[in-house]
Amino acid sequence: MPPRAVDMNELVDRHYAEVYRYAHRLCGSASEADDLVQEAFLTAQCKGEQIRDAAGARAWLYTVVRNVYLKQLRSPGRRRGHALEQTPEPVAACDPLELNLDFDAEALQNALLELSEEYRTPLLLYYFGDLSYREIADQMQVPIGTVMSRLSRAKSWLRDRLSTNQSAGGIPAVQGSTT
Amino acid sequence: MNREETDPSCEPERDCAAALRILDLARPGETEPAVLASASAHVAVCDTCRAIARRRERFDTRVATLCRDVAPPTDGRERLLKALATAASGVGASASADVVAAGSPIPAVERVSGITPAGREADGAGSQSRVASRRRMLRAVIAALLMLAVGGGTLWFRRLPATNFQAILTAVAAVNWSASGLPELLRLQDGQSPRLPEEMVTRFINTPPRELTVERVKSAVFFFQFPRRGARQVQGALAVVPVSQLSSRPQSGGFLANPPLVDGELCATTWIEGNLAYICCVKGTTSDLQELALPRPAA
Fold first, then answer.
1. From the CA of B45, how many Å to the nearest CA of chain A?
2. What domain range includes position B57?
3. Domain count of chain A?
4. What is the mean pLDDT of chain B?
5. Distances (CA, A) of A178 to A28, A79, B33
6. Closest CA of chain A from B190, distance in Å
7. Residue B24 near chain A (CB below 8 Å)
8. CA B221 vs CA A46, B60, B126, B181: distances in Å
9. ipTM metric
10. Residue B277, in any domain of the structure
11. Residue B115, CA atoms < 13 Å, CB-side half-sphere
12. Alpha carbon of A121: minimum distance to chain B alpha carbons (Å)
């Protein structure tokens, strides 16, 4: 049986906005997010038979967005964020009872971009809430335990980062940072 | 932090840490019920852990809300559809065909709207051909600028009208909720289908959306009713409108993420999902409206 053709209009209607948001939070730039989303949907148009069902389409699009982003990240002069191992702890761990809830989208985006992609991606997929832990693991091609561990550490780091009001200056500059 | 030192009701430190770790990543359907139950049991008797868990839950809600607080470009969908149509008709199709499947790194494709490196180098090395190439490029740039100017002007004149959610709510309140006099609406003005939201219970909505025009903006309204205790029926209406056509936007969040608005006999809440804004109101109280909230995770 020939593969079912994907209705691109429907795919765009259903998923464009959410995929754009994910791309924007992943890369931190509107124009780059635009490109990532366009690449993802162009890929869907060419490889639509890989989209098994409507429910799985968004996960599939997220995967393509991440793959294109990783490809771009490998180009020279790109900001890469830090692995948590290389990221100094925030000045002080926050008191869990005094967790800050007053941060804004910009502070969140800045904190996300300080994380390396391997921590940022599971964090975003967790907060976007569309994918199960198994699906996140499949997308990142790592065991589910690794996803849980990265997520736990990244969430803890994010809580401290956004609660201790630490300026971006507290994190060492990244060589070749462009964004 | 030595919270256990100050909280005599607390179990040993490892119980607190373990319970908080479990609850931090707990998700409905993905966490072993027995594991979740043991963590919940600890939190039920430990005031400090309960306070921390609640605070973390609010932090997570805040982050999740802000993650989605990104407005896609208003013309992004149209540009994307145009790019897809261009690619489908052959221009750029070869580039797209090289794209590797999801799950493995993929090469970048040429922008369908860009000038490709191949195009730039097509004229070879001769100086005459380079001059000709530059002239062609100049002509192309001038033509593109002219098209942009004309297109931009046309768009400016044909800009979609806009309204605000309060005006929509007032209009919804004013019509007959049997909806018999309102026509069906299958497409909104920006071409989208009026989708049901994912953030609220919608199983009571069985009829197609109706068209309600407010300040030249077509909103799609689903009228419905749902049972409450004592066999009482509560009437509700759900209006859907593209975010791009709202002059003042509700906060993103989710269903009832913002305090409900009580307006006469109506209780209403607004939120955004994707590029659609939703306004849900009931002829009843906040508690009736809360009946339409999806169950929250046990954690």
1. 17
2. 3-67
3. 2
4. 75
5. 12, 6, 46
6. 11
7. yes
8. 36, 32, 65, 13
9. 0.84
10. yes
11. 12
12. 12
Residues 120-149 of A with CB under 8 A from B: 124, 127-129, 132-133, 138-139, 141, 148
> Given pLDDT bands bounded at 50, 70 and 90, which one contains residue B97?
very low
The CA-based dihedral angle spanning residues A126, A132, A136, A142, taken in that order and rounded to the nearest 10 degrees: 120
Q: Which residues of A touch B93 (CB under 8 A)?
A: 46
- The β-bridge relationship of strands B246-248 and B163-164 is parallel
Number of domains in chain B: 3
Tell me, yes or no, if A34 comes closer than 8 A to chain B by beta carbon. yes
Query: With contact defined as beta carbons under 8 Å apart, do B26 and B42 qualify?
Result: no
**Tokens at residue B66, please?**
């802000």
| Domain presence at residue B296 | no
CA B205 – CA B187 distance, rounded (Å): 18
- Note down the domain range covering A24: 8-73
pLDDT at position A19 over 90: yes
| Alpha helix ranges (H) inside chain B | 3-6, 13-25, 33-45, 47-67, 76-88, 93-97, 117-121, 127-157, 165-174, 286-290
Terminal Cα distance for chain B, rounded? 23
pLDDT digits (tens, 9 = 90+) for B40-70: 888 889 988 999 988 898 898 889 889 988 8
Do residue A25 and residue B70 have CB atoms under 8 angstroms apart?
yes
